[in-house]
Protein backbone atom coordinates (compact mmCIF):
# COMPACT_ATOMS: atom_id res chain seq x y z
CA UNK A 1 0.00 0.00 0.00
CA UNK A 2 2.89 2.40 0.78
CA UNK A 3 4.20 2.06 -2.74
CA UNK A 4 0.86 3.04 -4.22
CA UNK A 5 0.63 5.99 -1.80
CA UNK A 6 4.01 7.28 -2.97
CA UNK A 7 2.93 6.97 -6.60
CA UNK A 8 -0.32 8.82 -5.94
CA UNK A 9 1.42 11.61 -4.03
CA UNK A 10 4.07 11.95 -6.73
CA UNK A 11 1.38 12.11 -9.36
CA UNK A 12 -0.49 14.82 -7.51
CA UNK A 13 2.67 16.86 -7.04
CA UNK A 14 3.53 16.52 -10.70
CA UNK A 15 0.00 17.49 -11.71
CA UNK A 16 0.13 20.54 -9.42
CA UNK A 17 3.47 21.69 -10.77
CA UNK A 18 2.45 21.23 -14.38
CA UNK A 19 -0.82 23.03 -13.74
CA UNK A 20 1.03 25.89 -12.11
CA UNK A 21 3.32 26.19 -15.10
CA UNK A 22 0.46 26.39 -17.59
CA UNK A 23 -1.70 28.65 -15.43
CA UNK A 24 1.08 31.16 -14.83
CA UNK A 25 2.38 31.05 -18.38
CA UNK A 26 -0.83 32.17 -20.09
CA UNK A 27 -0.91 35.64 -21.59
CA UNK A 28 2.91 35.90 -21.41
CA UNK A 29 5.43 35.64 -24.18
CA UNK A 30 7.88 33.56 -22.15
CA UNK A 31 8.42 31.79 -18.89
CA UNK A 32 10.74 32.43 -15.99
CA UNK A 33 13.86 30.46 -15.57
CA UNK A 34 12.29 28.67 -12.60
CA UNK A 35 9.27 27.60 -14.69
CA UNK A 36 11.55 26.55 -17.52
CA UNK A 37 13.77 24.56 -15.19
CA UNK A 38 10.75 22.86 -13.64
CA UNK A 39 9.29 22.08 -17.05
CA UNK A 40 12.54 20.64 -18.32
CA UNK A 41 13.04 18.70 -15.12
CA UNK A 42 9.56 17.29 -15.27
CA UNK A 43 9.78 16.48 -19.01
CA UNK A 44 10.73 12.81 -18.47
CA UNK A 45 7.86 12.41 -16.01
CA UNK A 46 5.40 14.10 -18.37
CA UNK A 47 6.61 11.90 -21.22
CA UNK A 48 6.23 8.78 -19.09
CA UNK A 49 2.78 9.89 -17.96
CA UNK A 50 1.74 10.52 -21.58
CA UNK A 51 2.98 7.12 -22.66
CA UNK A 52 1.24 5.50 -19.70
CA UNK A 53 -1.96 7.29 -20.65
CA UNK A 54 -1.69 6.11 -24.25
CA UNK A 55 -0.96 2.58 -23.06
CA UNK A 56 -3.94 2.51 -20.71
CA UNK A 57 -6.16 3.97 -23.43
CA UNK A 58 -4.88 1.40 -25.91
CA UNK A 59 -5.43 -1.45 -23.44
CA UNK A 60 -8.95 -0.22 -22.74
CA UNK A 61 -9.66 0.05 -26.46
CA UNK A 62 -8.18 -3.40 -27.05
CA UNK A 63 -10.24 -4.91 -24.21
CA UNK A 64 -13.39 -3.32 -25.58
CA UNK A 65 -12.51 -4.56 -29.05
CA UNK A 66 -11.87 -8.08 -27.76
CA UNK A 67 -15.17 -8.08 -25.90
CA UNK A 68 -16.95 -6.92 -29.04
CA UNK A 69 -15.07 -9.50 -31.13
CA UNK A 70 -16.07 -12.25 -28.67
CA UNK A 71 -19.71 -11.21 -28.82
CA UNK A 72 -19.55 -11.05 -32.62
CA UNK A 73 -17.86 -14.46 -32.71
CA UNK A 74 -20.60 -15.99 -30.56
CA UNK A 75 -23.26 -14.45 -32.78
CA UNK A 76 -21.57 -15.80 -35.89
CA UNK A 77 -21.23 -19.24 -34.29
CA UNK A 78 -24.97 -19.29 -33.55
CA UNK A 79 -25.76 -18.20 -37.12
CA UNK A 80 -23.41 -20.85 -38.53
CA UNK A 81 -25.03 -23.57 -36.42
CA UNK A 82 -28.49 -22.47 -37.58
CA UNK A 83 -27.36 -22.42 -41.22
CA UNK A 84 -25.74 -25.83 -40.87
CA UNK A 85 -28.93 -27.28 -39.40
CA UNK A 86 -30.99 -25.71 -42.17
CA UNK A 87 -28.56 -27.08 -44.76
CA UNK A 88 -28.87 -30.61 -43.34
CA UNK A 89 -32.65 -30.29 -43.37
CA UNK A 90 -32.65 -29.05 -46.98
CA UNK A 91 -30.32 -31.88 -48.01
CA UNK A 92 -32.71 -34.39 -46.44
CA UNK A 93 -35.67 -32.79 -48.21
CA UNK A 94 -33.77 -32.90 -51.50
CA UNK A 95 -32.76 -36.53 -51.02
CA UNK A 96 -36.34 -37.53 -50.18
CA UNK A 97 -37.64 -35.50 -53.12
CA UNK A 98 -35.19 -37.23 -55.47
CA UNK A 99 -36.28 -40.63 -54.14
CA UNK A 100 -39.93 -39.74 -54.68
CA UNK A 101 -39.19 -38.44 -58.17
CA UNK A 102 -37.39 -41.69 -59.00
CA UNK A 103 -40.37 -43.73 -57.80
CA UNK A 104 -42.75 -41.50 -59.74
CA UNK A 105 -40.62 -41.85 -62.87
CA UNK A 106 -40.58 -45.61 -62.46
CA UNK A 107 -44.35 -45.67 -61.95
CA UNK A 108 -44.85 -43.74 -65.18
CA UNK A 109 -42.69 -46.24 -67.09
CA UNK A 110 -44.28 -49.43 -65.74
CA UNK A 111 -47.48 -50.95 -67.09
CA UNK A 112 -50.54 -49.78 -65.16
CA UNK A 113 -51.69 -50.23 -62.52
CA UNK A 114 -48.97 -49.55 -59.97
CA UNK A 115 -49.07 -48.41 -56.34
CA UNK A 116 -46.38 -46.21 -54.81
CA UNK A 117 -45.66 -46.99 -51.16
CA UNK A 118 -43.37 -45.93 -48.33
CA UNK A 119 -41.41 -48.36 -46.16
CA UNK A 120 -42.61 -47.75 -42.60
CA UNK A 121 -41.09 -50.62 -40.63
CA UNK A 122 -38.55 -53.44 -40.74
CA UNK A 123 -38.23 -56.10 -38.02
CA UNK A 124 -34.75 -56.01 -36.50
CA UNK A 125 -34.58 -59.80 -36.34
CA UNK A 126 -35.59 -60.13 -39.98
CA UNK A 127 -34.06 -57.03 -41.55
CA UNK A 128 -32.92 -58.70 -44.77
CA UNK A 129 -36.14 -60.66 -45.28
CA UNK A 130 -39.18 -58.52 -44.55
CA UNK A 131 -40.39 -54.93 -44.70
CA UNK A 132 -43.74 -53.28 -44.04
CA UNK A 133 -45.25 -50.71 -46.42
CA UNK A 134 -47.98 -48.14 -45.78
CA UNK A 135 -50.38 -49.47 -48.41
CA UNK A 136 -52.88 -52.28 -47.95
CA UNK A 137 -56.10 -53.72 -49.29
CA UNK A 138 -57.74 -50.29 -49.07
CA UNK A 139 -55.26 -49.14 -51.72
CA UNK A 140 -55.63 -52.19 -53.92
CA UNK A 141 -52.62 -54.17 -52.74
CA UNK A 142 -52.99 -57.95 -53.01
CA UNK A 143 -50.78 -60.90 -52.07
CA UNK A 144 -48.26 -62.00 -54.72
CA UNK A 145 -47.93 -58.52 -56.21
CA UNK A 146 -44.36 -57.82 -57.29
CA UNK A 147 -42.46 -54.98 -55.59
CA UNK A 148 -39.74 -52.94 -57.29
CA UNK A 149 -37.70 -49.79 -56.80
CA UNK A 150 -36.08 -47.50 -59.38
CA UNK A 151 -32.99 -49.76 -59.14
CA UNK A 152 -34.72 -53.07 -59.77
CA UNK A 153 -36.52 -56.02 -58.17
CA UNK A 154 -37.26 -55.72 -54.42
CA UNK A 155 -39.50 -58.74 -53.70
CA UNK A 156 -43.21 -59.55 -53.52
CA UNK A 157 -46.17 -58.94 -51.24
CA UNK A 158 -46.74 -61.84 -48.85
CA UNK A 159 -49.63 -60.68 -46.67
CA UNK A 160 -52.03 -57.73 -46.74
CA UNK A 161 -53.97 -55.85 -44.07
CA UNK A 162 -56.36 -52.99 -44.59
CA UNK A 163 -53.72 -50.23 -44.24
CA UNK A 164 -50.38 -52.04 -44.49
CA UNK A 165 -48.73 -54.95 -46.28
CA UNK A 166 -45.79 -57.24 -45.64
CA UNK A 167 -43.19 -57.59 -48.38
CA UNK A 168 -40.78 -60.52 -48.65
CA UNK A 169 -37.47 -59.29 -50.01
CA UNK A 170 -35.60 -60.99 -52.81
CA UNK A 171 -32.71 -61.46 -50.36
CA UNK A 172 -34.84 -63.81 -48.23
CA UNK A 173 -33.73 -67.44 -48.65
CA UNK A 174 -37.37 -68.37 -49.38
CA UNK A 175 -37.50 -65.99 -52.37
CA UNK A 176 -36.61 -66.66 -55.97
CA UNK A 177 -37.32 -65.08 -59.33
CA UNK A 178 -36.81 -66.23 -62.90
CA UNK A 179 -34.22 -64.27 -64.82
CA UNK A 180 -32.16 -64.25 -67.98
CA UNK A 181 -28.57 -63.38 -68.72
CA UNK A 182 -28.92 -60.18 -70.71
CA UNK A 183 -25.85 -60.93 -72.83
CA UNK A 184 -26.96 -64.41 -73.94
CA UNK A 185 -30.66 -64.65 -73.12
CA UNK A 186 -30.09 -67.89 -71.22
CA UNK A 187 -32.58 -68.55 -68.41
CA UNK A 188 -31.48 -68.62 -64.78
CA UNK A 189 -33.05 -68.79 -61.32
CA UNK A 190 -32.05 -66.08 -58.82
CA UNK A 191 -32.49 -66.93 -55.13
CA UNK A 192 -32.04 -65.08 -51.86
CA UNK A 193 -29.02 -65.62 -49.63
CA UNK A 194 -30.37 -64.00 -46.46
CA UNK A 195 -27.99 -62.08 -44.20
CA UNK A 196 -26.13 -59.83 -44.97
CA UNK A 197 -28.28 -59.16 -48.04
CA UNK A 198 -25.44 -58.07 -50.31
CA UNK A 199 -25.58 -61.00 -52.74
CA UNK A 200 -28.01 -63.37 -54.43
CA UNK A 201 -27.49 -66.92 -55.64
CA UNK A 202 -27.81 -67.67 -59.37
CA UNK A 203 -28.51 -71.14 -60.73
CA UNK A 204 -28.44 -71.72 -64.51
CA UNK A 205 -31.44 -73.55 -65.98
CA UNK A 206 -29.62 -74.92 -69.03
CA UNK A 207 -26.63 -77.19 -69.37
CA UNK A 208 -23.27 -75.60 -70.19
CA UNK A 209 -24.65 -72.14 -69.47
CA UNK A 210 -22.51 -69.22 -70.55
CA UNK A 211 -22.29 -67.01 -67.45
CA UNK A 212 -19.43 -64.60 -66.83
CA UNK A 213 -18.57 -62.05 -64.14
CA UNK A 214 -20.08 -58.71 -65.08
CA UNK A 215 -23.13 -60.21 -66.81
CA UNK A 216 -26.35 -58.29 -66.17
CA UNK A 217 -29.32 -60.34 -64.95
CA UNK A 218 -32.89 -59.13 -65.59
CA UNK A 219 -36.30 -60.71 -65.05
CA UNK A 220 -37.32 -63.21 -67.67
CA UNK A 221 -41.04 -62.44 -67.65
CA UNK A 222 -41.67 -66.18 -67.17
CA UNK A 223 -42.61 -65.83 -63.49
CA UNK A 224 -46.03 -64.82 -62.25
CA UNK A 225 -44.76 -61.65 -60.60
CA UNK A 226 -42.69 -59.56 -62.98
CA UNK A 227 -42.67 -58.52 -66.60
CA UNK A 228 -39.56 -59.11 -68.65
CA UNK A 229 -36.51 -56.88 -68.41
CA UNK A 230 -36.62 -55.54 -64.84
CA UNK A 231 -33.04 -55.29 -63.48
CA UNK A 232 -31.99 -57.80 -60.82
CA UNK A 233 -28.23 -57.48 -60.48
CA UNK A 234 -24.75 -58.11 -61.85
CA UNK A 235 -22.77 -61.35 -61.66
CA UNK A 236 -19.84 -61.11 -59.26
CA UNK A 237 -18.34 -64.60 -59.27
CA UNK A 238 -18.92 -67.84 -61.14
CA UNK A 239 -18.24 -71.26 -59.63
CA UNK A 240 -17.30 -73.60 -62.45
CA UNK A 241 -17.97 -77.30 -62.00
CA UNK A 242 -16.31 -80.30 -63.63
CA UNK A 243 -15.72 -80.21 -67.40
CA UNK A 244 -16.00 -76.42 -67.40
CA UNK A 245 -19.74 -76.34 -66.79
CA UNK A 246 -21.12 -73.39 -64.82
CA UNK A 247 -22.76 -74.65 -61.67
CA UNK A 248 -23.54 -71.57 -59.60
CA UNK A 249 -22.83 -67.84 -59.48
CA UNK A 250 -23.21 -64.99 -57.01
CA UNK A 251 -25.05 -61.85 -58.07
CA UNK A 252 -24.78 -58.41 -56.51
CA UNK A 253 -28.29 -56.91 -56.59
CA UNK A 254 -28.80 -53.44 -58.01
CA UNK A 255 -31.16 -52.61 -55.14
CA UNK A 256 -29.56 -51.51 -51.87
CA UNK A 257 -31.89 -53.43 -49.57
CA UNK A 258 -30.49 -51.70 -46.50
CA UNK A 259 -31.63 -48.24 -47.63
CA UNK A 260 -35.10 -48.79 -49.07
CA UNK A 261 -37.49 -45.94 -48.31
CA UNK A 262 -39.98 -45.96 -51.19
CA UNK A 263 -41.11 -48.81 -53.43
CA UNK A 264 -43.61 -49.46 -56.19
CA UNK A 265 -46.10 -52.32 -56.00
CA UNK A 266 -46.93 -53.84 -59.37
CA UNK A 267 -50.47 -54.84 -60.27
CA UNK A 268 -51.10 -58.57 -60.55
CA UNK A 269 -50.48 -59.98 -63.98
CA UNK A 270 -53.69 -61.41 -65.47
CA UNK A 271 -52.39 -64.99 -65.42
CA UNK A 272 -51.40 -64.68 -61.76
CA UNK A 273 -54.83 -63.40 -60.74
CA UNK A 274 -56.58 -66.03 -62.81
CA UNK A 275 -54.45 -68.78 -61.31
CA UNK A 276 -55.12 -67.56 -57.77
CA UNK A 277 -58.86 -67.48 -58.44
CA UNK A 278 -58.75 -70.91 -60.03
CA UNK A 279 -56.92 -72.33 -57.01
CA UNK A 280 -59.62 -70.87 -54.80
CA UNK A 281 -57.15 -69.87 -52.12
CA UNK A 282 -55.31 -66.72 -51.06
CA UNK A 283 -51.83 -66.72 -52.53
CA UNK A 284 -50.31 -65.06 -49.45
CA UNK A 285 -48.57 -68.21 -48.37
CA UNK A 286 -47.01 -68.87 -51.75
CA UNK A 287 -43.34 -69.51 -51.39
CA UNK A 288 -41.01 -69.24 -54.34
CA UNK A 289 -42.26 -67.50 -57.49
Describe this structure in words.
By secondary structure, this protein is α+β, with helices and mostly antiparallel strands. It folds into two domains: 109 residues; 172 residues, Beta Barrel (Thrombin, subunit H). It has three helices and twelve strands; from the N terminus they run H-H-E-E-E-E-E-E-E-E-E-E-E-E-H. The protein has a six-stranded antiparallel β-barrel with strand order 1-2-5-4-3-12. Strand 3 and strand 4 form a beta hairpin. Helix 1 crosses helix 2. The longest helix is centred in the N-terminal third of the chain and has 77 residues. The N and C termini lie far apart (98 Å). The C terminus is likely disordered.
CATH-wise, what's the superfamily of the largest domain?
Rod shape-determining protein MreC, domain 1
Number of domains: 2
Shape: elongated
Q: Please state the average pLDDT score.
A: 76
Poorly predicted segments: 281-289
Assign the CATH architecture of the largest domain: Beta Barrel
Level-1 CATH class name of the largest domain: Mainly Beta
* SS-derived structural category: alpha+beta
Question: Number of helical runs?
Answer: 3
Q: Return Rg in Å.
A: 42 Å
State the order of secondary-structure elements, H for helix, E for strand.
HHEEEEEEEEEEEEH
What fraction, in percent, of the residue positions are helical? Answer: 25-40%
N-to-C terminal Cα separation, in Å?
98 Å
Percent strand: 25-35%
| Number of E-state strands | 12
Annotated CATH topology of the largest domain: Thrombin, subunit H
What oligomeric assembly is this protein in? Answer: single chain
Biggest pleated-sheet summary: 6 strands, antiparallel, barrel
Biggest sheet strand line-up: 1-2-5-4-3-12
Amino acid sequence: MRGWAVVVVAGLVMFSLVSAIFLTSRARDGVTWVEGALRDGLAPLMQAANRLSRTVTGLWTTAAGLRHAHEENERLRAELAALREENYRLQEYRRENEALRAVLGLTLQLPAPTISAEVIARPLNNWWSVLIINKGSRDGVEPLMGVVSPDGVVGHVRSVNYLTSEVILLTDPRSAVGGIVQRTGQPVLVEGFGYPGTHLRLRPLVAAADIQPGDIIVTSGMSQLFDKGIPIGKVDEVDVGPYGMSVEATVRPFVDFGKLEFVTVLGLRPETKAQAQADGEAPAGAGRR
